[in-house]
Write a structure and sequence with these properties.
- This is Porin.
- Keywords: Signal.
- By secondary structure, the protein is mainly beta.
- The protein has a single domain, classed as Porin, CATH 2.40.160.
- 10% of the residues lie in helices and 54% in strands.
- The strands form 2 sheets. Strands 1-2-3-4-5-6-7-8-9-10-11-12-13-14-15-18 form a 16-stranded antiparallel barrel. A two-stranded antiparallel sheet has the order 16-17.
């Protein structure tokens, strides 16, 4: 009888452990802060590159986010809460309830090759993302800053083969993360092949919408220590919009240090934009200690047909340079 009872207890324990293995809760996130000083303009003149997030001088907070992910056997949910200036900028302060909701979605693995996702999720467009730990450069590009940060809707991801993937989405219009007040919707698709992605997005362009955008994101391992990332995009909204290309060469000099240069050409098109364009050069070092990343960065932007900055004499100028050092901890 003791053997029978022991066997039943062992079987029950194995069953509970198996169920626990099928359901898993993970917690992750990051915290970042930075110091920035302008080299060609007084810090107190409050200049800005005009890109998202790192736009303050002196010491500043980036963001802190906590991601809770619950994974079941065939379904799960993700909640990503973010706070700080970068979090407010990424969500347009639209969901302040003891924090800000960056992402919140549920998913269902319909089959081994098909997943449905319903809720708010960060954009599939562009090379860069909101969370700084996943970007090589700390400051962000014009292409990333111009596109949507997140989408609210339904998407389906398909694994077509070992090399090909496909995503189809229907969402609220550009960065309308709560409701579609106009009854209009946006459509997106992504075709992936061996780490290269062709993205398409369309909304009507009304009420501040994005219109049509085609975007390519990818990269190549040139060698074991050298990687070249690429992003190119074209946007049009009723005859005006933006286009550009950014290259991201990155060289790993050791296991703990890498050096990367973002070289971006970004332009506005349309009658109202006067063919304004900018060349942005951002040189970033990345030094890793355990889960901490230290990023010193020099950035220089120069505009054609526009003078959006002020120099040290208070005169309008077309260029701005800055030094930034950021610290990012991931957990």
């Amino acid at each position: 009888m003791k053997k029978i009872i022991f066997t039943l207890l062992l079987a029950s324990s194995l069953l509970v452990n198996a169920q626990d293995e099928e359901k898993k809760l993970t917690i992750s996130g990051s915290v970042d802060a930075y110091y920035q000083t302008y080299l060609s303009s007084p810090d107190n003149s409050a200049p800005s590159f005009g890109t998202a997030f790192a736009g303050k001088s002196g010491f500043a907070l980036g963001m802190a986010n906590v991601i809770a992910s619950y994974e079941g056997a065939n379904a799960g949910a993700v909640l990503d809460l973010v706070t700080g200036p970068k979090g407010a900028g990424a969500t347009f302060n639209s969901d302040i309830v003891d924090g800000i909701v960056n992402q919140a979605y549920v998913y269902w693995n319909v089959s081994e090759n098909t997943t449905l996702t319903f809720g708010r999720w960060n954009t599939f467009l562009g090379y860069e993302v909101i969370a700084p730990a996943a970007n090589f450069n700390y400051s962000t590009s014009y292409l990333f800053s111009s596109g949507p940060f997140s989408h609210m809707g339904l998407k389906a991801d398909f694994t077509l083969s070992e090399d090909f993937s496909l995503m189809l989405a229907i969402t609220n219009p550009w960065d309308t993360n709560d409701t579609s007040m106009t009854g209009e919707y946006a459509f997106g698709t992504q075709l992936g092949y061996k780490g290269q992605f062709l993205n398409l997005y369309y909304d009507s362009g009304n009420n501040g919408g994005l219109g049509f955008e085609i975007d390519y994101t990818g990269g190549f391992d040139v060698s074991d220590s050298f990687f070249l990332g690429i992003n190119a995009a074209y946007n049009d909204n009723d005859g005006s919009g933006f286009y550009g290309v950014a290259l991201y060469p990155q060289l790993a000099t050791s296991e703990s240090f890498s050096l990367g240069l973002r070289s971006e050409i970004y332009a506005l098109h349309g009658d109202a934009n006067n063919d304004e364009s900018v060349l942005g050069l951002t040189l970033t070092g990345s030094y890793t200690v355990d889960n901490l990343i230290i990023k010193p960065e020099f950035r220089l932007d120069g505009w054609d047909n526009d003078e959006p900055y002020f120099d040290n004499d208070g005169m309008a100028t077309n260029s701005l340079s800055a030094f930034t050092i950021a610290a990012i901890y991931s957990f």
